[in-house]
Amino acid sequence: MNDLTLIAASDARLPTDPFIGRHLIDGAWCDSIDGGSFDRHSPSHGILVSRSAQGTKADTDAAIASARAAFDSGVWSRISGKARATALLKVADLIEANVERIAILETLESGKPISQSRAEVSGAADLWRYAASLARTMHGDSHNTLGADILGVVIKEPIGVVSIITPWNFPFWILSQKLPFALAAGCTCVVKPSELTPSTTVMMGELLIEAGLPAGVVNIVLGHGQPVGARMATHDAVDMVTFTGSTAVGKHITAAASDTLKKVALELGGKNPQVIFPDADIDQAADAVTFGVYFNAGECCNSSSRIIVHRDVADALVEKVVALSRKVTFGDPLNPATQVGAIISADHQDKIDTYVKDAVAAGAEVCLGGAELNVPGLEGKFYQPTVVRNVTPDMPIAYEEVFGPVLSVLTFETMDEAIAMANNASYGLSAGVWSQNIDTCLEFSRRVQAGTVWTNTWMDGFPEMTFGGVKQSGQGREIGSYGLDEFLEVKSLVMRIGQTRAPWVRNG
After folding, report:
1. pTM for the full predicted model
2. pLDDT > 70: percent of the chain
């Protein structure tokens, strides 16, 4: 399409050799026991980006055994909060010192724009610093009203060994939503990144070693869900699994973990609505909708992939979103001016396109896009900015997660109708409401089924504000103080003061 804003291949220097990734087990880098490896080619540039060790069941068992031994030894779990916080703060400093090299590799493996990768990596340091503050301020409760001779104390202890399984769309950021909070709690960890984006997790391992974390506290196993992820979810020595990814895989992990009744925390899919009422600031709403659907090429669990807009302002809003969409820069992820990069894989691109074509066949109208995008000088897969209107709630594009740069437009007339449409999905991750009336915003926020609700904004996030979903968007919470609590067990200590307990068995 000639009316889109494209950025052709830049003159950025591409690496001539792939990044070599190995497992981190008990403080040492090692190849797979069987010598296996796998390659990752850039979805934007087609070059070989990385070659990684292919994890086996034996590699995974070794990593779990290392984490178990480190936890039981107390080398991390029983040191002071101050000591743990000091190490986490060192990691944060090291992240900031290595932003550029980490960001370049993340861009080449994921296809996301380099400016976004830089922001994610540098922003991750703040998550580590906030987790460090929690390590020092974690506390329980005391009860001194149980009687003159009884003192009750409720303490919080680390849950133990945690399996961390991360996705391909935000590999460094999502790892930083989990790992520093598990470490702040005193847990030890085994990490498996996605096989599509393994390398920045390996880089994180390098920083952890440089920061002085004891051997075995964090272990990394590269590879696929079978056998690595499956073993991490079922092993008896693992106390908890935290996973971010698709709802389908999350259900499998829950089922696999049930045999050992280990704790499971899940951050899964979303079909997140923004509801625009007629008194909304249409210009600001249109800009936020445009950002929400194209950020990370729509490959984001928080993508605002559907809007529910009042009929009185629907035409005006769609017109503005289409105009803004034409100005969004799509193209070479290594160009700092690019806002939207490549789709993660050809298979995923086909899935996105199928949703659009099926919607059209069912009566929807494509206002913009709806096809593959050819970027001059690049071999990768790109998809046009796409706006689909006349969508009805029964169309899959209205309630299933597309995970691409595709916006579905539905309309409403009453609050009840808007709420019904917003809740008409199996997901409940996030939602947004646009109105100048605080009563409207509060009523919507209380009635919508979502873990996060944004009012007159979209996707503002802070380490202090916890994140997670309801329904099939997951269970448990990440970041914030609630994110720390996920990695803690609560223990009650009931202590009698002095020899005041009357004997149960009486003599004589």
Report:
1. 0.97
2. 99
